[in-house]
Here is the input.
Amino acid sequence: MRRLRAAKDKTARYIMLGIAIFTILFLLAIGLSLFFKALPIIREKNLWVLLTSADWKPFKGKFGFLPFILSTFYVSLIAIIIALPFSILTSIYLNSYASKSVKRLFEPVVDLLSGIPPIIYGVWGTLTIVPLIANKIATKFVEYSTGYTVLAGGVVLAVMIIPLLISIMVEVFRSIPKEMTDASLSMGATKWQTVKRVILRKSVSGIIAATVLALSRAFGETMAVLMVCGNITQIPHSIFDACYPLPALIANNYGEMLSMPNYESALMFSAFLLFIIVVLFNGLSRFTLNQIERRYQF
Amino acid sequence: MKHLEEKIFKVIMICAAMIILGVLVYIIATVFYRGLPSLTLDMITKLPGGGFYLGKEGGVLNAIVGSLYIIIGSLAISILISVPLVMYINFYLPAKSIFSSLIRFSLDILFGIPSIVYGAFGFALMIFLGVRASLLGGILTVAMLIMPIMMRSFDEITRLLSHELPDALLSLGATKYEMVKVIMKQLMPGLVTAILLAIGRGIGDAATVLFTAGYTDNIPASLNQPAATLPLSIFFQLGSPVEEVQNRAYASAIILTVIILILSFSARYFSSRFSKNKI
Here is the structure.
């Protein structure tokens, strides 16, 4: 009887260890398989050319990823620029000002915003943001715009990353010891002065980490951006130009282009690119955030 | 002076918070406003009929059932892997082991990988294994996407559990495996919360199933048949030039939104119950 129990315990332990190792290897497996799938095109074209050429004619064997890389970058940048002030202000409000009932009201709001599927954001974007840009905003700056633009992608993405930013920043602000803010308040500083001089200054690394994390989320967002940003292969010159981010490129073409081995490899290259950027950004910011959490745990 | 600044910034902060709340309401309202006129009982009880994509009758039952199949299958896989893993990090490994922080770190990164990358990886894997776009492919790929979500949220809840109960069980002579079996009962509401969160993410994601699950107007009868999914159904209907079909896309968007709302609120309910039961 005792031996049976011990054997069960041992078996369970080994199975669990196996699963744990599998989880770590899984990450490696994704990276490696994407890399090897992308290798043919890297070998053939030279990495530098792939990254810096704007010449995208897959049927003539020309694969310049610059338009897609820049599109991804611009859309994400606009999203961050819009989302950051809203997120910081709201997180400060929730952390230092709001009453318990307001906080309780806001939790489901953040939950829901992060739970709404990308496709719904896309639908909302095409119904509201795109016509708004085409009819109201763009007319003030350029002669004509379809509304399917860098700006539309940026706005929709901004709404999508706000919940991520808020939930991390609230954690970051909360990790600041109460003694510090109390000290500042008891010296006669107003709440806002305390926020400005103590809380914000103490959380710079946390805010940067949250921003990097949100940026990497924005880089990879596919469906919502694809639906509102026009998908025209070009280097966008203004925020009222259409653009074509990397994830949209994969989503629109992968699966149909298997007959052309080069094309498939090129798409895998873009997936690999996304993977590397996201892993780097995520790794860095998670590392920073874990450090912050540890610093204030005791 | 400083009190004026205080007031100004307080107003700005309240505005920012109100705008965020307003956007959420605006999104849900837009979807309902546009979709409600086309939301009929047929939408959720009928398969797409002939000429459905030209505006003739039918519904999106194929997508609802397909999404359901895929999420059930991928849930089964991810629960089987997540639960032992979380138990292992929390109760088998020492509290501050390098191995457990390495696992948590890779979970964080897996969590951040975009769904389109999982989709591309899943599809490449399927080609390698000789599986065509099918229910099975969709289940496997969605499982990859939701596994890190489930593991992380379940791990976070498990970490809150105090160590008194495990210690008491061990001191009574239980093996670790027996201890874990008892603790799992305690953690049930937490697991349910994690599952609901994972369903929410998995059921709404289109990029993972885009290449891997395929699309069909029928309900898949076996694992190697293609399966329709709700997000893709919305996407394809939206791409149609026919206005009626587009309206149906909005109606389908309501169905998806309602599913997400229900999931989100029940997750909240279970997690609040959990915090009450906490020892």
